[in-house]
């Protein structure tokens, strides 16, 4: 039985999930937990190179190609980062995991949800998140945030319809997965953080019972 816990942050671009992950990292460290933050893609050296390829606007690729590259990144990440950290008792905070593949490639890119789940079943068999926190924000507001931040990777440059489909996708898939909580990120950063912390505290309370 592994000692640590895996908490995954998911959501549409511009929802503030990475900001909340960083705040939770500080919060848990202050409470005395060993915490490791990581991300997909890009949590390993191999993954970093895959991330650059996937997000570079000059490279247009089929959705299945994206899914296969993400699966390669995930294999390296699970084997070399997630499992070792969890075995050592870390609380691992991961920025994106399998839900993102289901939404972006399975639904939005048209690869098919069942195909993505089959491709990722090897990872689900080896490691399941203890909690998925899915932050969703109205795509028009989220897109405004992205533009204000000056982001310009391939996903950030997609049109509003794309971001609407991503938003709807996360709202839907958050109902399918166990240990998955959807938090609408309409409020202030502090208000959203308080909601996130409540869900994390529930996780630790259930572990202590």
UniProtKB/TrEMBL annotation:
GO biological process, one term: dUDP biosynthetic process
Keyword list, A-Z: ATP-binding, Kinase, Nucleotide biosynthesis, Nucleotide-binding, Transferase
Molecular-function annotations in GO: ATP binding; dTMP kinase activity
InterPro entries registered for this protein in UniProt: P-loop_NTPase, Thymidylate_kin-like_dom, Thymidylate_kin_CS, Thymidylate_kinase
GO cellular component: cytosol
Cleaved signal peptide residues: none
PANTHER family assigned to the protein according to its UniProt record, in alphabetical order: THYMIDYLATE KINASE, UMP-CMP KINASE 2, MITOCHONDRIAL
Protein purpose: Phosphorylation of dTMP to form dTDP in both de novo and salvage pathways of dTTP synthesis.
The protein, known as: Thymidylate kinase
Name of the gene this protein is made from: tmk
């Amino acid at each position: 039985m592994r000692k640590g816990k895996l908490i995954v942050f998911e959501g549409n671009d511009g929802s503030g999930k990475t900001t909340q992950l960083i705040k939770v990292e500080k919060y848990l460290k202050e409470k005395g937990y060993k915490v490791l933050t990581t991300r997909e893609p890009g949590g390993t050296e191999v993954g970093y190179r895959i991330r650059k390829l996937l997000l570079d606007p000059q490279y247009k690729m089929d959705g299945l190609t994206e899914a296969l590259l993400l699966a390669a990144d995930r294999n390296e990440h699970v084997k070399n980062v997630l499992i070792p950290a969890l075995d050592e008792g870390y609380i691992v905070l991961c920025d994106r995991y399998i839900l993102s593949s289901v939404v972006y490639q399975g639904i939005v890119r048209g690869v098919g949800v069942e195909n993505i789940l089959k491709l990722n079943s090897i990872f689900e068999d080896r490691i399941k998140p203890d909690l998925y926190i899915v932050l969703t924000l109205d795509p028009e507001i989220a897109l405004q945030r992205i533009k204000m931040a000056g982001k310009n990777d391939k996903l950030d440059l997609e049109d509003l319809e794309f971001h609407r489909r991503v938003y709807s996708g996360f709202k839907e898939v958050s109902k399918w997965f166990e240990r998955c909580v959807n938090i609408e990120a309409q409020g202030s950063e502090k208000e959203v953080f308080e909601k996130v912390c409540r869900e994390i505290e529930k996780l630790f309370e259930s572990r202590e019972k």
